[in-house]
Specification:
The protein is an alpha/beta fold. It contains 15 helices and 15 strands. The protein has a 4-stranded parallel beta sheet, with helices on both faces. It has a 4-stranded mixed beta sheet with strand order 9-13-14-15. A 3-stranded antiparallel beta sheet has the order 10-11-12.
Length: 498
């Protein structure tokens, strides 16, 4: 795996593990675990109270580009300030296929833990709409007043004390220049080059691109129109930077100059990455592709030791091996006895991992304080005391209440959900009714249940996550079991006739 390191220390905690110490430990960890470090992201004297750190955000952006496969950090607290932030950042990394390694913490990675994680993620879907509604409610309230909602401020504007847009005298001329040049017939490429040579940057401080330029040229805020998610549209709500005549002319030119969509390259998902191993030497097998004489592209899994001429295992066809593993996984899920065993093991694991509710109690305490403060303000207003300061304070408390309620809903998922064995059984049985032609469904099945797959020349051995043994069964154990006629736990044997 290609890995990167993220390191940070706080300016007010000079005694904690230093940057140099973290990097040294990370290199040792990478060497011990077969990881290749290709880059280091370092935030010096940066607090962990928020994740708005330059190098941390750069790491997240690079993760979205699939530049690396794994992230090495000192401890969990390096990727977030609290449980919600850590979960969100971990979800972002996981969504992009990034595996996280902790140097100073032992994060349990048992079969039951893997299945429980999938159960929790599945049940979170029932609560996601509630969380989204809480967030959207506050944003819509701000949008109704034509205020900034955080992510909708374009270049050329700043946010005033009342959260309304004000013209940024420093960057507004750049916006006006862009509209002027495009209306005179300059191409996108010419304007992008012109801006970048002049040292101009986007709102995020990055060089201009065709996408950022097109977004700017289509933004109605520059003529004073406030919009929010196609739900709210308010004319003359923002001080305009561009006159309507120029804006309309640019929109017509954009339509005229619009080209056919660029060719979209398709990417191939190798579902068994990190789970498929060679039955001859035990090395990992990775996805490769090649084009035949007829011009048709074929996809295979290839033994990594073969590249060094240490193994002569022939590649196996991607479609065949993935189909075989999925068939056996589905058959496993249709075995009621096996599902009952998985549910019991997962439930016991859940009980051990979810006994601390101090975080939820702290949120309840904070929410009670906010409610008391709001009640006091209401009593003051009922007594005839009302001014702008009280109104502003009430708005602040209302926003705090929304945030706390959203955090409580998220915390309740883990601590107050009341997860029972029946919940887990229902969730596991739901896998049997999934659309197995859907690519995301296939990924979820394999990630959750498949532990390892060993491919021999004459057979395939599959092992699954459904026993108390949290180790990946090794090739030596499988071979010894085959020779001695021993039935290995959580293993399925398939005679290879391919």
């Amino acid at each position: 795996m290609n890995a990167v390191v993220y390191a940070r220390y706080s300016s007010h905690k000079q005694g904690e593990q230093s940057i140099e110490g973290q990097l040294a430990e990370a290199k040792c960890y990478a060497l011990e675990h077969g990881l290749t470090i290709i880059h280091e992201y370092i935030d010096r004297a940066q607090t962990g109270r928020n994740d708005n750190r330059e190098q941390f955000q750069c790491m997240l952006a690079d993760a979205s580009k699939h530049i690396f496969d794994a992230l090495i950090v000192w401890k969990t607290d390096r990727i977030g300030r609290n449980k919600e932030e850590i979960a969100l950042n971990k979800y972002h990394l996981k969504k992009n296929g990034i595996k996280i390694f902790y140097i100073a913490e032992m994060i349990p990675d048992t079969p039951e833990g893997i299945i429980l994680e999938s159960v929790i993620e599945g049940m979170a879907a029932y609560y996601s709409e509630q969380l989204s509604q809480n967030i959207r409610r506050g944003q819509r309230r701000s949008a109704a007043k034509a205020q900034s909602t955080g992510g909708n401020r374009p270049l050329g504007y700043i946010t005033g004390p009342d959260k309304r847009f004000q013209i940024d005298l420093e960057n507004a001329p750049t916006v006006q220049k862009v509209f002027e040049l495009y209306s005179k017939g300059w191409t996108m490429a010419e304007i992008v080059d012109f801006l970048n040579v002049q040292g101009k940057r986007t709102l995020r401080g990055r060089p201009f691109t065709h996408n950022s330029l097109r977004t700017m040229l289509k933004n109605e805020k520059y003529i004073g129109v406030y919009t929010y998610n196609d739900e709210i549209r308010i004319e003359n709500a923002i001080p305009p930077i561009i006159d309507k005549e120029t804006f309309d002319k640019v929109q017509e030119m954009l339509k005229y100059n619009k080209r056919a969509p660029a060719h979209k390259w398709s990417t191939v998902d190798y579902l068994l990455t990190d789970k498929l191993f060679c039955g001859k030497c035990g090395a990992m097998m990775v996805g490769v592709s090649g084009t035949g004489r007829s011009g048709v592209k074929h996809h295979y899994y290839y033994c990594t030791a073969r590249r060094k001429k240490l193994c002569n295992k022939r590649p196996v066809r991607k479609e065949w091996i993935e189909g075989l593993v999925l068939d056996h996984t589905v058959a496993l899920l249709r075995d009621d006895a096996v599902l009952a065993f998985i549910a019991e093991q997962t439930y016991q694991y859940y009980l051990k991992q979810n006994t601390d509710n101090s975080y939820t109690q702290s949120l309840h305490t904070a929410l009670d304080d906010v409610n008391r403060s709001m009640d006091n303000l209401i009593k003051a207003m009922e007594a005839g005391v009302f001014n702008s300061s009280i109104k502003q304070r009430m708005d602040e408390l209302d926003e705090q209440k929304c945030e706390l309620e959203a955090a409580l809903a998220a915390a309740r998922l883990k601590e107050d959900l009341g997860l029972t064995k029946k919940h887990i059984q229902f969730f596991l049985h739901s896998f049997a009714n999934m659309d197995y032609d859907d690519q995301n469904c296939k990924k979820r099945l394999i990630k959750t249940f498949v532990n390892s797959v060993y491919v021999y020349d004459d057979k395939v051995v599959l092992t699954f996550n459904y026993s108390g043994d949290d180790r990946t069964i090794t090739l030596q154990e499988i071979d010894a079991g085959l020779q001695n006629g021993v039935c290995l736990p959580r293993a399925v044997f398939h005679q290879n006739t391919n």
